[in-house]
């Protein structure tokens, strides 16, 4: 890459062609509107959504426009603000909510922005944060507390998914089942343990990520290739099933096993995205009185506040960050994510022009 050029362009990771990969290109630097904030990106993290875009799977082919700048997990500093913006100035360290909401629908007006029917995703429906600069509305900008390490803010988006799901039900003294030991499942394990759960059982087939879940708070991990969940429940003294379930895998088998191992009246939060034709045993849901809640994104700004205060109160999710790469080696970062032998992967943008 060449040194910075004053040509109105910046480096960005772009979905330039309808095939596997992302390409580092120079694209127009975004303009700042009256209510916008321009952020110089310091660090980004790779999300599973970014992997879908990179691999160009069926979802991406039907969702992502060619030419889009990807990325929505980031931290950076304010370098410019619109004339109507108050509360942010150049030099402020910030992150931001990745769902740009309409502000006009019933849910937005009631303060439930996470349920906006017309939300647009940064790095999905509009250009994202895998770039030198990102411009978003000031109402989507979150001020970073300097007492919290900067790279933690680069993963506040997925940490927020985990927090929204994990805090959707009271876990104090409860037995919690988490299906799926991806980074969000691992962070959810840390949160429910921090919130006072008794047993935190995490299931998966990936030994690497199960080990990571153990580091982050799971009291028992279950590799379903080697053990049966029902045997583990007996081993730890459970007799009536799990009180709370957090489905993070998106696998039909994971959801089915959860439904059949909940106590009567148990509570399930669904974050993992199931196939449209996934079969669900509604008879068991009904006769066992299960409560199932869909989880999307983060509560704005409730979840962000909880994330910040939990970290300040001693919650440690730092082990979930397992890899760091210079942005110029972004392909290695995606390789690590795709391998399944990683937690969160951080990309450092400080030397993009080096």
Automatic annotation (TrEMBL):
Limits of the Alcohol dehydrogenase-like N-terminal domain: 33-143
Domain (Alcohol dehydrogenase-like C-terminal): residue spans on this chain: 183-311
EC number(s) from the headed UniProt entry: 1.1.1.103
One of the protein's GO biological processes: L-threonine catabolic process
Superkingdom per UniProt: Bacteria
Keyword NAD recorded: yes
Ligase listed as a keyword: no
Keywords noted in UniProt: Cytoplasm, Metal-binding, NAD, Oxidoreductase, Zinc
MF annotations from Gene Ontology: L-threonine 3-dehydrogenase activity; zinc ion binding
Pfam families reported for this sequence: ADH_N, ADH_zinc_N
Family: Belongs to the zinc-containing alcohol dehydrogenase family.
Protein name per Swiss-Prot or TrEMBL: L-threonine 3-dehydrogenase
Lineage: Bacteria, Bacillati, Bacillota, Clostridia, Lachnospirales
């Amino acid at each position: 890459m060449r040194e910075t050029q004053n040509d109105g362009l910046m480096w960005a990771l772009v979905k330039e062609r309808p095939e596997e990969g992302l390409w580092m290109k120079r694209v127009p630097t975004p303009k700042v509107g009256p209510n916008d904030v321009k952020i110089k990106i310091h660090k980004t993290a790779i999300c599973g959504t970014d992997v879908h875009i990179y691999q160009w799977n069926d979802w991406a082919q039907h969702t992502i426009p060619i030419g889009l700048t990807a990325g929505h997990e980031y931290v950076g500093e304010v370098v410019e603000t619109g004339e109507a913006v108050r509360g942010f100035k150049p030099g402020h360290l910030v992150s931001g909510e990745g769902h740009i909401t309409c502000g006009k629908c019933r849910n937005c007006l009631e303060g439930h922005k996470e349920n906006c029917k017309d939300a647009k995703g940064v790095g999905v429906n509009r250009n994202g944060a895998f770039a030198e600069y990102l411009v978003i509305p000031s109402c989507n900008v979150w001020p970073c507390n300097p007492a919290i390490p900067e790279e933690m803010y680069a993963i506040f988006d997925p940490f927020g998914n985990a927090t929204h799901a994990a805090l959707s039900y009271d876990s104090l003294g409860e037995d919690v089942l988490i299906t799926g030991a991806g980074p969000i499942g691992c962070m959810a394990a840390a949160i429910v343990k921090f919130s006072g759960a008794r047993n935190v059982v995490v299931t998966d087939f990936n030994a690497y990520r199960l080990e990571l879940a153990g580091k982050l708070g799971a009291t028992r991990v279950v590799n379903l290739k080697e053990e049966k969940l029902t045997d583990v429940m007996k081993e730890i003294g459970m007799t009536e099933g799990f009180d709370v379930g957090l489905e993070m895998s998106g696998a039909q088998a994971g959801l089915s096993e959860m439904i059949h191992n909940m106590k009567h009246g148990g509570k399930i939060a669904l974050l993992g995205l199931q196939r449209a034709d996934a079969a669900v045993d509604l008879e068991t849901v009904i006769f066992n009185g299960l409560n199932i809640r869909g989880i999307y994104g983060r509560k704005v700004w409730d979840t962000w506040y909880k994330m910040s205060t939990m970290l300040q109160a001693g919650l440690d999710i730092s082990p979930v960050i397992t890899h760091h790469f210079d942005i110029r080696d972004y392909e290695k970062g995606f390789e690590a994510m795709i391998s399944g032998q990683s937690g969160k992967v951080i990309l450092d943008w400080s030397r993009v022009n080096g």
